[in-house]
Every structure is written in structure tokens, then in C-alpha cells.
Amino acid sequence: MSVSPATVACLAAAGLIGAATLGFAPSGGSGAASRGSAEHHHILLLYTGEQRGHLEPCGCTQPQIGGLPRRASFLASLSHDPPSVIVDDGDMVEDPGRQSQLKAEMLASFYRGSGYAAVNVGEQDFQLGFGYLRALQAEAKVPFLCANVRLGDRPALAETASAAGVTLVGLVASSLASDIRRWNRMLAVEAPETSLARLEPVLRRAGPVVLLFHGGPAEARPLARRFPWLAAIVTAHEADDYRPEPIFEAGVPMVNAGRWGKVVGRLDVEPAGVRSMSPVTLGPEWPDAPSVRTLLSRYLARVNAEALLDQVPRLPDADDQLFAGSAACRSCHETTFETWQHSAHAHAYHALVTAGHDRDPDCVTCHVVGLCSQSGFRSLSGTPNLTDVGCESCHGAGASHARSPAAHSMPHVEESTCRRCHVAEQSPHFDFAPYWAKIRH
Ligand code: HEC
Ligand code: HEC
Ligand code: HEC
Ligand code: HEC
Fold first, then answer.
1. CA–CA distance from 190 to each of 32, 66, 359 (Å)?
2. How many other β-carbons are positioned within 10 Å of the β-carbon of residue 201?
3. Whole-model pTM above 0.85?
4. Ligand 3: distance of its center to the CA of 348 in Å?
5. Which atom number of ligand 4 is nearest to the Cα of residue 390?
6. For 227-261, what is each residue's pLDDT tens digit?
7. How far apart are the C-alpha atoms of 50 and 59, rounded to whole Å?
8. C-alpha to C-alpha distance for 85 and 34, rounded to whole angstroms
9. Distance of alpha carbon 164 from alpha carbon 166, whole angstroms
10. Residue of the nearest CA to atom 4 in ligand 3?
């Protein structure tokens, strides 16, 4: 599937973007979402959210949890009784730009293939542009919810969806309204309570109603107090990895699945009430689903085919801040060079080649020298001396120093330099003293 800017332009020209709300029936077709009928009174609600472009673990450290291929295996393992309803609470991506579009398209295919009943749209997703989201929703055939983001007097996306007798309503927190408006001037963001009050008469006639709220518990609590008939609220933007226990407000359970898709949250929804079950952690015990592997390979092939690495924004370098490459340091720092050559840093790009991510801007930045500078890494063949984590990844650009060391000294390297790359996600065990001991020179 692809939604090109051209598609969006065509839809706009045809008057489809900005026209009436897309209608949708309770999701039919294949997948877990359709496993029930409106008569079911016992369902398993599965929730994810805040993927934020993390389609699978990067592999920088072992073990890592999460990833769409494992999630697909878990979802496929579910029994049909009780039927499951799968939802996502938004923030598919966290940057604007082409790579995020490719990720969103991959995710949309994933949601459809896995039988998601609805995706609540997060403020980050609005960076992709509302017209793009409309086109993406149309191709994905999964309702994108957001009842309080309005285009004129109409909802910009869908307000509600239903599956297996459960009604889903999506809202975004007021505190995120300014972001959405900044990226989409034509949209207005209504207060969530206003939207819920408007929908209340219809929702109260429905079966259990689950609110997908794209916002934190502080902003969700007043909604639970005013609308205590809600069966449950899924929240977003919580600092923790995920929250294992629900918070109760006015008897309404509020749950959260954390960031980056490491876990799948579970709620048992019965007429007697809602019971929160422990989230399922997506560790290596869940095998990769081949169909989702294929989706990911296709995504990566598009990243390569569109040469996104060649398009990363680069800062101009001052004349005395040009990169020379590690080989240029060798003649005067022979022993240091040899120490480095035998370190893991000198093979860092190779690790990406093996992983198939050597042209992925998401990865290359920490595995080479100066990706974001004009004179930095371009490609393996174009700038062979700037591949891998080289001397200048830590010491800074050194062409002037290499030409006349006396006139240009190199700055000292601090621990903070290491921590630009050795961040918690990629290097959770980083500790300066033992790490430096391994590469000391
Ligand atoms: C923020 C910087 C950063 C980003 C972004 C990053 N890496 Fe890494 N990567 C590291 C660091 C640091 C290590 C070493 C971690 C350690 O041993 O503590 C590493 C290690 C690795 C290793 C292990 C190498 C080996 O020989 O064992 C692989 C494989 C890898 N990264 C792949 C990737 C891929 C694929 C991506 C993109 C999806 C990526 N990296 C993105 C910083 C990064
Ligand atoms: C430009 C990004 C970057 C910077 C800056 C950086 N590293 Fe690394 N480091 C990496 C990557 C990527 C790897 C993984 C290389 C591989 O195994 O392929 C790595 C691996 C290592 C390893 C090997 C880990 C192991 O388990 O063997 C050590 C040790 C290390 N770094 C120490 C440091 C120290 C100390 C600093 C600061 C003085 C530092 N690094 C700065 C990116 C960086
Ligand atoms: C033409 C020889 C030459 C080349 C090439 C060279 N250096 Fe140096 N470097 C020196 C000399 C001489 C010193 C000063 C040594 C001293 O005072 O003990 C030095 C010192 C340093 C220092 C210590 C800080 C300082 O400025 O005193 C660092 C770090 C350094 N060089 C890194 C590099 C890096 C990185 C490269 C490659 C980009 C490089 N050097 C290329 C000759 C060279
Ligand atoms: C992973 C980061 C890292 C890499 C890669 C790296 N260095 Fe260093 N280097 C350091 C740190 C940290 C120090 C010690 C602190 C300091 O002196 O700035 C250091 C010290 C030095 C010194 C001694 C400075 C002094 O005053 O004694 C020289 C010379 C030097 N490095 C050159 C190089 C050269 C040449 C390369 C590549 C072949 C290289 N380094 C690769 C982090 C790095």
C-alpha cells in the first residue's frame, strides 16, 4: 500500500479531503476484530499505543522486547472465545517527513492485517498532515478516531467505531491541541468533555463504551468523573514504560500500554464489569510472524529505494570543522589507530550491513562519523574513511588538526560525548569506566 503526496493531492482535487466524515461499519472482513457479533457480552480488549516509529527492536543490545512481528504472533495465538477487539491509542510516528510516512503506511497495513478495530490518532500523527491521514485511513480500511478534532462543523476523522458489541470513541487531550493546530491550521480542537457530552445520548444506548484517550491520566480523570458510564479509558503520554495496574477514577479503570509497543495491554470486558489483566510482554518467546517480516522488508526496501539516507538534513561546517576520516589520523597516531581498529567501534557500520539497515537514517547516525554534517558520512563507497564510529565521532572534526597539529589542537572528550550514542535504549548497561577501559588509548 502506498499513499503518495500525489494521491493526497488527487483526493483534495476531487473534493474528498475535507468532505463529509468517512462512514464505517463495525469492522467486518478478516481478523480478530470481527470474531464476535453484537450479541457477545464478554470480550477481550487488547490495547497498544505510542509506537512512535519503533517498528521493531534495533538490536543494539540483547535482549530487547517489543516489535510488530512478535505482536502479530501473539495476536494470532488468541482464541476466538471470548472474541477480541484490538485497538491502538495513537502516535504511530514521532517525526514529520518521508520516513515517517513510510512507517505509517507499514503500520496501517499491519493494523489491517492484524484485525485492529480502530486507531486513535495522536498529536504526533498530525505532523503527517490531516489530508495524508485521511488518505491513509481510506487505504488502510481501519477507522482512525478523533472525535474532538474538527474541520468546520464536522469531525475531521471518525468519531466512533464498534466491534464485537463494544463501542470505541477516540479523543485527544486539550493540552495537545496547539500541536495539532500548528501542523494543521484548518483544524479546530474541541474540549474532550464537549465532544463526549455531544455523543453521550448515542453512546449511552450502546453496549460497553471504551474511550481511547490520547492524553495522560491527569486529563483523563475529569472525563471519568463526568462520564462514569465509560467501561474503561486507555490513556497515553505516561512517563513509565507501561503501567501494570489500572488507576480507578469514579469506578472507571484507566490503563496504559506504555511506549514503543513493548507490551500488549488486556482488559476483560464483561457485563458485570471490566477486569484488567496483566499486559503481555513481547519477548523473544514470541516468534516473528513471517507476514509482518515481509511488511518490514518492504518498508526497508522503500527506505533504500527512495535513498532517504541521501536526504538527511545536514548542517554546514565551518572551514576549520571539516571531517578528515580516521585514516588521516594514522600517520601520526599509529598505536592509537591500531587500538581503535581492534575495537567494536571500527566495525560499527558492518553491524548495520549485517542487519540490513546500512542505508536506514534511523540507524546510520550512531554507527558512522558526522552524518549530519556536510563533510560527514555519505555512503560506504563515497566516504569509506567515515564509516564506523571513527576518531572524529568522539574527538570532533579533525581535518585542520591533521594538516597542522600545532596550530589546531583537538578538544578533550567527555563522558557526555559517549552518551550521545550510548543512550538508555541502545546501550542500557553503559557505564563510562568499564566501557572506556575496553577502548582506552
Ligand atoms: C542512539 C544511537 C544508536 C542508534 C540510533 C542505533 N544504534 Fe545500534 N548501537 C548503538 C550503540 C551505542 C551500540 C553498542 C551498545 C552496547 O554494546 O552497549 C549499538 C550496537 C548495535 C548492534 C550490535 C553490534 C554488535 O556487533 O553486537 C547492532 C546490530 C545495531 N546496533 C544495529 C542498529 C540498528 C539496526 C539500528 C537502527 C534500527 C541502530 N543500531 C540504531 C547506538 C545506536
Ligand atoms: C557516534 C556514536 C558513538 C559514540 C560517540 C560512542 N560510541 Fe561506543 N559504540 C557505538 C556503537 C554503534 C557501538 C557498537 C559497535 C559494534 O559492536 O558494531 C559501540 C560500542 C562500544 C563498545 C563495545 C561494547 C561491547 O560490549 O564490547 C564500547 C566499550 C564503547 N562503545 C565505548 C564507548 C565510549 C567509552 C565512548 C565515549 C568515550 C563511546 N563508546 C562513544 C557508538 C558510539
Ligand atoms: C601530522 C600529524 C598528525 C595528524 C595527521 C593527526 N594528529 Fe593528532 N596530534 C598530533 C600532534 C603532534 C599532537 C600533539 C601531541 C602532543 O602534544 O603530545 C596531536 C594531538 C592530538 C590529540 C590530543 C589533543 C591535542 O590537540 O593535543 C588528539 C585528540 C588528536 N591529536 C587527535 C587526532 C585525530 C582525531 C586525527 C585525525 C583526524 C589526528 N589527531 C591527526 C599530530 C597529528
Ligand atoms: C569512542 C570515542 C573515541 C574514539 C572513537 C577515539 N577516541 Fe581518542 N580519546 C577518547 C577519549 C575519551 C580520550 C581521553 C580523554 C581525552 O584526552 O580527551 C581520548 C584520548 C585520545 C588522545 C590522547 C589525548 C591526550 O591528551 O592524551 C589521542 C591522541 C586520541 N585520543 C586520538 C584518537 C585517534 C587518532 C582516534 C582514531 C584512531 C581516536 N582517538 C578514537 C575517545 C575516543
1. 32, 34, 42
2. 8
3. yes
4. 23
5. 5
6. 999 999 999 999 767 888 899 999 999 999 899 99
7. 20
8. 8
9. 6
10. 402
